[in-house]
Amino acid sequence: MIPITLFLPPGEQTDPLVVHVYGAYGISLEGPFEPFTDDLLARGVAVAYCHIRGGGELGPRWHRQATGEYRYRTVEDILACLRQPTWLRGLHLVHPFIDPLATLTDPTSNLASTDLAEYGDPRYDPSIWDLLQRLSPMGCIQELPAQSHRLPRAWIRAAERDARADNDAIHRFCQHYRDA
Questions:
Q1: What is the DSSP letter of 146?
Q2: Contact (CB, 8 A) for 104 and 112
């Protein structure tokens, strides 16, 4: 069972739905006021927050259940929440970790030091290497032939000098996403 917080716009029967997911570092989705949610609700769009394993909603054990070799559980949880992922019409990615394998194998990456504890070390563990290669958004999108899939629209938010995201990877991902 994956907790989901659902916000519905007033008076709407059938709504488009934006799904917000975060499952890493033991951080909960609950937090400061999010004007993005209010804006969507005002436009008649429902918003769902999926509290998947890896996040902090259900404590440290919930977080540990999706770290290292168990990182795949975040994807399982997302799919369990969505049920019908083919219905997706849009993505909103905020500071996304697009290419974990490249980041964790790059000794000069400023992100690698904090992420090794969360994801495991692919440099020394072949099972982590394989897992990250399968789960990598960059790896998945690069495998799609050009113009082969109708993908949902994507909105990616990251700052130009974002310490939490690899902007080069985001730019490359965006190009592959557009091509696919």
A1: T
A2: yes
